## 1
Amino acid sequence: MSADPYTAPVRALFADTAHSGDLPGGVAVVAEAQGVRVRLTAAVRGGRLASLRFRAFGCPHLIAACELFCRTLEGRAAAGLDGFSLAGIMRDLSVPVEKTGRILVLEDAVRMLRESIGDGPPSQSP
Amino acid sequence: MSAPIVYLDYAATTPVDERVAERMFECRTTAFANPSSNHAPGRRSRALIEEAAAALAKLLNVDPRTLIWTSGATESDNLAIAGAARHRAWRGRHLVTMPTEHKAVTDVFQMLENEGFEVTWLEPDERGRLDPETFRAALREDTQLASIMYVNNETGVIQDIAALGAICRDRDVLLHVDAAQAVGKIPIDLGELPVDLLSLTGHKFYGPKGIGALYIADRPGCHVEPLLFGGGQQRRIRPGTLPVDLIAGLGLAADIAAERLADDAAQVARLREVLWSGIADIDGLLVNGDPDGGYAGILNVSAAGVDGESLLLALEPLCVATGSACNSQSQEPSYVLRALGRSDSEAQASIRFSIGRPTTEADVEFAAERYRGAVARLREIAGGLAA
């Protein structure tokens, strides 16, 4: 059977959004476009993304992309956000081309997160 | 292994009744002859078609000779509207319909606008109903045809066809009714209802897909020009070799519907109540349509703060619809719900539950529980972002 708009990874990530939520006191940003909204929150310790959480209002591909982003980047150096591209995640999730614009909201959020974290000691904002 | 599905999308289509499937199979193997042929097998095919026409005519309380077989409601709508408008162009070039009609109707009116007809699009009230006085006021001297659907496919709203038809008769305007969601589900007595043209399809009431009918009242001035050419079948209104198996299947489905109409209606109403009582207290839930006067088998709701596409996936293995199934390839908010005053986000988050003959109490209880859980989970993931 074909014509399923969602790949197995999308279905699995959508079904298990362990990283949805907030981190009180973490660095938080919100990006919005085309009716889609993403909030990313990071707890930064020693230059590392100790914890990452997301909130998302959008389609299953967006929610899956947010969860995959958090799983991939959590525990890594904050500098890993530099020049972060969503291309790999979109390829892994087989995001249909017509949804690209909406999924790129996550990339905007990542860029904002990187700017909020900055290069200095971790700032903890509400 | 995936969980068994729970199907609550009977407004999109219904499964073929087993007895209907058996009748069709029997026809395919024993009544293959062309019903236009005059030999014995041809006469046998013709007799099966006449039997089916009689069954459908009985369900609608009409003369079987007023029925034209088509490929389904889309073709019936096209034939009725374009065929009548062109035939009666001498009478005037003004037409009346609503933006909440099915695309099989609205697209034909848009085509007729391109041909030089003028169309008045009457807006419904916030519950989706058309006020007969608004309708009366829209009719002009040069109005020749109006098309209003009986039961809305997205909301279940029932229009007051008796009142609208009476106004049309008074003003010598033909009334076409798209009854695809009504036939076999609610009583329709065309012996009483002042309707000139009525479209229906078999697959909405446990008959086969690919077969429908158009009722054309036997009244002066009520006629349609054909859209297809190539033979003398069906008084040249709709030529082409008739599919005996499909027609026989539709006929039996009509027989069964007539027999079960009251029981089906009672069961659907009871199950809708179970479903509704299971979700009614969800915060921010909106009913799309007329909660007091609609067809009980369709319940359309919008939950604030959730994305419709995500909701549909979160509801699996529950099979429901967002907007019209015919329009589900599009992510655009439902134009029907927008016409009822719903915002883009409310329309996009809409879910249509539709209950059918095979639906059980366990099905609707599962649906209510699943819907509650999915809405709560997506609201949790959104964390207030949708506000």
Note: The mean pLDDT of chain A is 91.
## 2
Amino acid sequence: MTARTIKVGTLARVEGEGGMLVEVHDGRVENVQLNIFEPPRFFEALLRGRDYSEAPDITARICGICPVAYQMSACLAMEDAFGVTVPDEIRLMRRLLYCGEWIESHALHIFFLHAPDFLGFDSGIDMAREHRGVVESALRIKRAGNELMSVVGGRSVHPVNVKVGGFHRMPTVQELSAIRPDLVAARDEVMELLPLITSFDFPDFEQPYLYVSLGAENGYPLESGSLVSSEGLQAPVHDFGEHVVEEHVAHSNALHARFDGRLYVVGPLARYSLHAGALSPLAAEVAHAAGLGPQCRNPFRSILVRTVELVYALDEAIRIIDDWQGSVASVPVPVRAGVGHGATEAPRGLLYHRYRIDESGAITDAQIVPPTAQNQPSVEDDLRVFVQDRLDVPHDQLTRQCETAIRNYDPCISCATHFLDLRVDSR
Amino acid sequence: MKPLVVGLGSVDRGDDAVGFLVVRQVADVPGVDVVEVSDPSRLVDLGAGRDVMVLVDAVSSGSAPGTVHVLEVGEEALPIGSAAASTHWVGLGEVIELARVLDMLPARVVVVGIEAGSLEHGSGLSAPVRKAVPAAITAVLDLLD
């Protein structure tokens, strides 16, 4: 009997902490575990008993990379519970803020976390030594997203300008116009980097994924919408819990989600495959130049799809700024007892919140289903299938490819801590 | 440009909040810019063009909780574990090295690290780390003198 184990104790270049184990016995992959040290359901517990109005700020603290996603899903869920629909202008300002988060998060993942895999570097630092111009350009793109988030969301650790019902204060036309040139420049820089990204070599690997995303009435799904799937499902967000069941698995303290009992995928691949027709003309042109068809089922090509979405987010931000004529900052929120559901498209995929509120406005129950929990079973399945077909690949190379396969999903694993592991020389 | 003091941390994970608590106490010092960051990737170009940057963060080195480390970032990389040791995409050490490669590192960078006790969600600051806050503030102020 021959046995082989591919193990990475702690994965680099994924958000948070994670490890991977793939065990092969007698030529068969028998055990695949993505070990995710997700924070326990601390935040759901923390929210119980707190006022509804605190949910956007508390949930923003779950992730240093995607605070806006948590805020937006929380706001939608609360507004749903109270029967409030915000005016289109407020929805658009939310979409603009969310574009900032997509720009920052996608630029980080494409150029600093994922590109080194395809260029053969161990880290973004090594890549910067050889491709300095690319990394400088990527930093400027990322900063444009950051600036957009600061102007709309406020300058703080997390955006503080968001509240249930809208915003504390609307940015002025002048403030928005001031960041437009940086967004245009960032879009130009992405276009200049496009030939590099499209030159990457991708493993020949496709999976028959069930894709799930929001479906928006206007444009590509982002800050609102209903549930849609690649098998024709169309359902209100209220029905999320009827389709998605989260279960504990022994090797990970993250919950694994199933959609109607099946593996499924949320995120850029799902959004693109379900809504490529809703892209802006330039983003569609980029998709074409990248060789993407109407759907994409090769997870390694997710870096191409993220690049398409990066261009879309920049385009969309510029469009919203150009059309902006001002708006009330928020609408009143009449508190009542009830249950509210909210879902938005975080950079990594669909993020669902559900809250039960009592008549005083206190949260009595909270459920948060992040995109990584939904994708995790599919990441393990990708590893199983990928390794099974490549048992002859040298060990180090296969281990690297497995790490890339995990990074395909930009998994956001624990979020929100970054203590230093410091080695003090004790001479 | 003014010296920049950066607090790194997360408010909900026990002693990881200490960086924020320390920098808030120096926010009113004239002639100093202070920011709080929970995504270390933002640090790469944050100090570009500055002469001095002070980073305040919780650290894990095996010393007694509450120990205050002051580390000058010199020509060599900080003795910080690989990306694997950090819970973010790259740790502070990697961000500093990336900034160095891109010539975005201020002339003087100093890390004031407070040895963490507990990083449990929701646990609040541990007693030894709470007691160390005044010493950490003094360490930051000494560097700014």
Note: The longest helix of chain A spans residues 88-119.
## 3
Amino acid sequence: MCINFSMKKTKNLKLKEQNEKLADLFSLPHDILCGASNVSIIGSMRVMIENYKGILEYDRETIVLQGKQSKIKIIGNCLKIRCYNEEEMVIDGRIDGVLFFQ
Amino acid sequence: MNSYFRAICGYVCVQVKGYGATRFINICAKRGIKLWNVEKNEEGYRVNISVSDFRKIRNIVRKTKVKVVIVSKHGLPFFFAKVKYHKFFAIGALVCFFWLFIMSNYVWAIEIEGNISITDNMILDYLAENNIEIGIKRNNIDAESLEKMFRRDFEDITWISIGQDGTTLTIDIKERDVNVYEEDKYVASSLYAPHDGIVTSIIVRSGSACVKKGDIVSEGQLLVDGILPIVKTDGTVLGYNLVNADADIVIVYPEVYTDKISIYADEKTYTGEETKELYLCLGPKTLCFHFFMPKYENTELIQSFYQLKLWEHFYLPIWFGTGIKKEYVLERVKREETELKDQLYENLELFLESLEEKGVQNIQKDVKISISGSMLILSGEIHFADTNLLRKEITASMGTELENGQYNTVINGNER
């Protein structure tokens, strides 16, 4: 079981690497091929995120989202989700920082 | 745009309570249920969700074991549901909307711009003669033919544009420059004396002078002729050139001036009694309601009206007005002689100023004030120097009267 899991993980890593190479080779967007999250920040008052799975944590100071490759942490004040659907999320408020972590 | 669409379709603001609140909104997003204005509070999440999506969340609520409470309802479906219990309000709103729609098909204001010598009243009277008044249906106005009529009947209008903006009929006018008009009006013309007088100065630029300095002229006398004979060296006339006569001629003439003013005058003495009136006029000032009716013998009425409008050019046929009626008593009083004299001299100055604007200068005045009965009279003789001359066109019939009928027309040195 343990061997199976590690095999699956290496297979996934290999696939990811291949996709990245392919994206570089044909100048294709990474977010489509590798499933990377697309984060757009407008000034310090709005963040738009695409390619994410869901919310992990939400309060007025921090929002943690599960991305397809990593977790995304938005730090700020008076944070509010303006729009939330399958495709994108719009967060309003005073944005202090955006952090990516595993 | 999205928010308008949501308002039309209707949405609810719900409070999601429970341990699985975060899971609930994640599943909603995954299943294509759109959420907006997601806010975290102490109890859980407060989210907005459309009415159609709200019906789909039953299974998710059961699955995540959360409690969903509707906080507020927004949008047209809820408005109509409320209106069901306020039928008269709904009928009133519908009637108002219908009335606005009907009223927007009529003209309720006329705006005139660009007119200088042609007054607003002249234009409004002309429009009224052609059955165009406030209250006319917008479709009944043929702007193109109306513009043609204006150009035909008002010679001074060089350009006119008639348009409709909301319930306002807008008329833009450009008037002709009078001086340019005079110059271009005739092909050939002569100058004549406008009234009796003495010629004190004459400078002829074009045409042949028929008078000289010091001559006494009478009204209508030819001063500068626009018909120039072409004479051979032996004195025989070969033909004639017709020109626009041009000259600076000053004619001095005396005029008797008389102005009188009564020593006694009826003066209004206000009693201090006054009442305010309110008006509500529907239609083009045909139906007026006076809310208060005062009963005074002599009253002075000051009225002001305000026309209701929805926005800049959308006037409505409703006028609100206020009026103040002041009671007064007429008293016959004797006025101060110095005050009356000042007034007479002021009238004279105004008269002279108005003439000066027309190019008639006052060069000498000999006036005195006398009292006759109850009147104070200012009379005397004033000498004016007039530079305005009468211009008359040399007509074709005058041309045929000339010898052999041979003549040329010379304008600005070019032969025609």
Note: The mean pLDDT of chain A is 83.
